[in-house]
User: Fold this.
Amino acid sequence: MVLELTNAGIACPECGSKKVWKDGVRYTKQGEIQRYVCRSCGHRFSETRVGKRSNLKMSNSIYRQVCAPAKGAKNLAKAVLALREKTSKSERWAAGATKKLSDAEVKGKLVEFAWWMKKQGYAEETIRCNVSALRVLASRGADLSSPESVKEVISRQKWSGNRRKNVINAYTLFLKMQGLHWDKPKYTIEQKIPFIPTEQELDALIAGSGKKLAAFLRLLKETAMRAGEAIRLEWADIDFERRTITLNKPEKRAARAYGR
Assistant:
């Protein structure tokens, strides 16, 4: 399928739209060939030059009619339409997203993302971590509107498996907010045996700390609660008569009671 250049400019050979952007060049033996992308349908095509004549040719061979008579290709248009319907929304979005988001647009998207997670019922800490992960990606050169750009930035980072997993999950949620999806990159989580100090080492640490810190560390040792849970304790949670502490604001949504 060939479309002649007109004085009005270049038009998409697929949908006829004139909202066409340049999309890099292709190097051949005949020289550089300009490539274009349609902002309306996401179709990519290239420009070839024969003598002084300029033509636009479709770059995808699936639309071409090879060794088929006109009567035998009567269903070609229907096949093309059916194929376009099967194209996922995320692929079209990624194909058309050639303009990188500005800093102001990134900040706006992150605020929108945080509010969306809040409405979905995510915990405040989860929202903070996911927004922080996307902010790190953007600061290191990733275009949040392009999954391929995000993959490239992630591949260059020297992150642990857990860190890589958290960043990938954060971007997956970001795409989910927009009704999109992507092919997530692979990651490997290394299982390590944590260092567990002896009770004598814990007692020595507590004895060498100040009064407030020593009381805090003693609480963690005797109850095995998390530091964040201990910080959120209130006086009403402590029963001095029964010598018990009730954990009403756990980090993993499981209330517990500690006693001695």
